[in-house]
Amino acid sequence: MAKSGCKIQKSLNFGKRTWEKDPFEQLHTKACRNILKIRSNGSGLAAKAELGRYPIILGLASQALTFYSKIASDKSKLVYKALQQEEQTHQNGQHSWISFIEYLTRTTLDETYTIGLSKKNKIIEQLHKQYQINFFNAIASPTGQNGKTGNKLRTYAKIKKQYTLEKYLKTNLSAKLMANIARFRTSTHNLAIETGRYARPVVPSEHRICKMCPENGMWRLRNLLFCIAVVIRKAGMTVKRT
Asked: b or e along 44-54 (b: 16 or more beta carbons within 10 Å of the residue's beta carbon)?
């Protein structure tokens, strides 16, 4: 249990997002993408945010806190003595399960690890708040996670205001329409502004323009909504690429 707590503690570095490398978290992210029907190169952060899902690591931290509170609430049980042994190990400077509980308490509430059920809920709430803060900072950043290329979630940052399950996913819209909305919101569509990112060499964002639009401005919102090429297609006519 001490090893598990140490692993979770290291993974709770929101800035470095180390939890994303965990195989179970990668599976979680893949499942979120599949639910939304977005491509595998779509942002895992955005996929989870659309569904209001948090990283598995926060769920593990919540379970650890709940288990600790349950044991600490009844001193008559034998398992409480085991808890005391863990506390002694921690006080002796060795890493134990209590070290993880102490870490959560100190980093969220700035208190010692002796907690009750009410503070357990406060810690979990604070962990979610910290994740949300780092999430919104990440999607609003001018650059991507590598700090070099442009942030593909800059559009998502303008429309994602609350970390919760999006309303369109709770409606009776068709699966195809929901998927198209999700792809547009998370920038996993086939417009030039997105596909140009994966060209070699990478096409600068200001040059990712529609080849069929006379104004060459598909990347602009007004052309996205009122694209002449789309109007021509709907009229049953053909359009040649320039």
From this structure: bbbbbbbbebb
